[in-house]
Every structure is written in C-alpha cells, then in structure tokens.
C-alpha cells in the first residue's frame, strides 16, 4: 500500500530528511542527528511535522457532554479555551487510546488522536455519539499540524505575530486568523518544553514552516520526538498504554476522575485492582529497548520495558517499564536484561528530565 504524504513532504525531502513509514505515512525520522535535535528543543527551538495525527470535530448543543462522557478526565469543568489530556476507555476500563480534546467553545471541540489509532478511535466515538445532540466529523485530511517546541518558541511566535494576545497559559487553545488563513493554536506539545501546536490548512503550514526556518528553528523528526517524550516520561500508546491495560496500570490515575457522575469505564475502574506499576529506570551502560526483561535482585523476571532509549541530556540509557504488581520488589532493586547480560539500574521517582513548559 502506498504511503500517505503530509503537506510538508517536499519540505522534508528538500532538507534531506531521513524518511520512514509511520502509521501509514512517509514521515521524517531525523534531519541532522537525534542528539542535535533533542538539544535544539531543550535549549532553543525545534519544530515537528505531526500532520499524521487525527483531527475530529464535535459541534452542537451536547458537544461538551459527549466529550466528557468518553474521557476519564474532567472536561465539563475545564475552563473556557482549555485543552484536556485523557485516556479513552472501554466499558471494561481498558484503553482505546489517549488523546487531547480542545475546548474551542462549548459547542465546538477539537479531538486530536494518535495517527495509528485513528480508525479505531473514529469507530469507537461514532458508536457512542448517538444519544447526544451533536455532530462528530473527521477532518483529519483537511488539517496540517506543526509543533513548535522549546524555550525560545514564544519569542519566535511573537516575532511573526502568531502568539495570541493576552494570557496564554499551558494547555490553552485559541482559534485565530492570519492573512485570511484560519488556524487553531494550543499551548501543548509532546516534549515537556514550552511551545505550541498549530492546526491549520495545508497552505498555511507550508508558509509557517518556511517562516520558522528563516527564524532559525531547527526541523526535528519523530526519532528525537520519541526521545524527548521519554525523557519527561510521557506515555506512548502501544507502549505504556494498549488494549490490555487500564490507565491505573500506567501511572495515569491522575487522569481518572472518579468524582465525575459518569464516564465510559467508570464502574470497571472503580472496582479494578491494578496489575502493574509503571517505573522509571536508568542505566549507566547499555541502551534498554521495549520488550527487554526486568528482573529483581534474585534474577526473577518481574516485568518488561515498555519504552527505552538513550538520553542525550543525561548521557545514559533510560526506560519506562511495567512491573507486575504482585512481584514488585520491596527493596526497589531492578535489573534490565540486555541480550545475555544483566545491568543494574537506578530507580527514579520523578521524570528523568524536568521540562521547561510554563
């Protein structure tokens, strides 16, 4: 099957990006090196083409109620022009996907879903929209999405007159217009750094990409994006989250608001005893990868790495891992098996890197 191309595909080719298939799209994996791109985002400003993501819109009288019903987090009580991160669960509490919903207004909501789960999410939401007085539309093909991330992102946005006037705190969203081009800008991202995500037409995306390049913004690929999200311990569907686990198995209890009147999966989660603990581990030598075994101090197999890689910031291997709850070691000593060798780890309570979002 032929891979889809984003509106910025030719920009990536011109920049000699290393391309790779991802979720049915031909996407930029990296441009320079993962290390250079990670440092650009942590210290300066980088940008990502994430136009492969899915954009669903909900409009109508019951838009808020519908969205609040399918997410475990509290959307109804989020303030105006706020974005909310949340898992989407089945009745049994397992995770369909994680996503962000954006409250453009009470009767217009943008739902951004993972590219690899777009069809599954669409089918699930379509199945559950019937009893609500609202319209659900898939407009993924109509939108490009650029993520501008890093401590200098606000300064660049101000310079090109793209930053909304007034207060624009973390997890805010605003609909705006520039030179007759409408766009949606949100103070969100997947790196832990300050920055925005810009949902816009394909034509505006090409204009903005070139403007950002002229301002010295470093183009970054999906490889560095994955490292950046792992450094700040953001979950990735298919790794920390999947069809077999609940949010309570993956350190997302904070997103499950049991004081809500109802949401899909509430009854199951109210009576659920988590099977796993999600832990953060680092090693001085070696690079952990998803699927590697986690062992206790007696070399008993107790879990598996869900995400792993090398952190350019820390200059060491880092990993998130699911540990079977009934095998969780009281001494909190963990080993990672890489091929036929066992590597001692450092157990972390906090994210490996503290991002600079504000």
Unreliable residue stretches:
none
What's the alpha carbon Rg, rounded to whole Å? 20 Å
In terms of structural class, how would the helical and strand content be classed? alpha+beta
Q: Please state roughly what percent of the residues sit in beta strands, choosing from under 5%, 5-15%, 15-25%, 25-35%, 35-45% or over 45%.
A: 25-35%
Number of helices: 8
- The sequence of SSEs as H and E is HEEHEEHEEEHEEHEEEHEHHEEEEEEE
Instruction: Examine the coordinates and then state which fold CATH places here, giving the name of the CATH topology of the largest domain.
Output: Gyrase A, domain 2
What would the principal axes of the Cα set say about the shape?
globular
CATH class of the largest domain: Alpha Beta
Strand order of the largest sheet: 19-18-15-16-17-14-20
The share of residues in helices is 10-25%
State the end-to-end distance.
42 Å
Number of domains: 3
On the 0 to 100 scale, the average pLDDT is: 97
Q: Give the name of the CATH superfamily of the largest domain.
A: Probable tRNA modification gtpase trme, domain 1
Q: What CATH architecture of the largest domain would you give? A: 2-Layer Sandwich
Tally of strands: 20
Largest sheet: number of strands, sense, barrel closure: 7 strands, antiparallel
């Amino acid at each position: 099957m032929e891979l889809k191309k984003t509106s910025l595909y030719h920009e990536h080719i011109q920049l000699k990006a290393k391309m790779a298939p991802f979720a049915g799209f031909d996407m930029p994996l990296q441009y320079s090196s993962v290390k250079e791109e990670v440092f650009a985002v942590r210290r300066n400003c980088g940008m990502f083409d994430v136009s492969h993501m899915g954009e669903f819109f909900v409009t109508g009288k019951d838009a808020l109620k519908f969205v609040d019903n399918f997410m475990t987090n509290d959307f109804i009580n989020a303030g105006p022009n706020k974005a909310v991160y949340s898992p989407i669960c089945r009745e049994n509490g397992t995770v369909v996907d994680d996503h962000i919903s954006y409250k453009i207004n009470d009767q217009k909501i943008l739902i951004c879903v993972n590219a690899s789960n777009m069809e599954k999410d669409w089918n699930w939401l379509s199945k559950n929209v019937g009893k609500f007085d609202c319209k659900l539309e898939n407009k993924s093909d109509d939108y490009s999405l650029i993520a501008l991330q890093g401590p200098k992102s606000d300064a660049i946005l101000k310079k090109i007159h793209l930053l909304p006037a007034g207060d624009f705190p973390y997890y805010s969203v605003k609909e705006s217009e520039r030179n007759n081009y409408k766009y949606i800008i949100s103070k969100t991202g997947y790196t832990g750094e300050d920055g925005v995500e810009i949902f816009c037409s394909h034509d505006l995306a090409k204009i903005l990409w070139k403007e950002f390049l002229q301002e010295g913004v470093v183009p970054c690929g999906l490889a560095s994006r994955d490292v950046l999200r792992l450094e700040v311990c953001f979950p990735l569907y298919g790794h920390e989250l999947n069809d077999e686990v609940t949010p309570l198995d993956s350190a997302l209890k904070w997103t499950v608001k049991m004081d809500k009147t109802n949401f899909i999966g509430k009854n199951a989660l109210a009576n659920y005893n988590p099977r796993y603990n999600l832990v953060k581990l680092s090693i001085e030598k070696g690079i952990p990868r998803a699927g590697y075994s986690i062992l206790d101090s007696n070399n008993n197999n107790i879990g598996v790495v869900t995400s792993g890689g090398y952190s350019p910031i820390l200059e060491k291997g880092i990993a998130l891992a699911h540990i079977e709850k009934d095998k969780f070691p009281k001494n909190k000593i963990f080993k990672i098996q890489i091929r036929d060798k066992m590597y001692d780890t450092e157990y972390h309570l906090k994210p490996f890197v503290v991002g600079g979002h504000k």
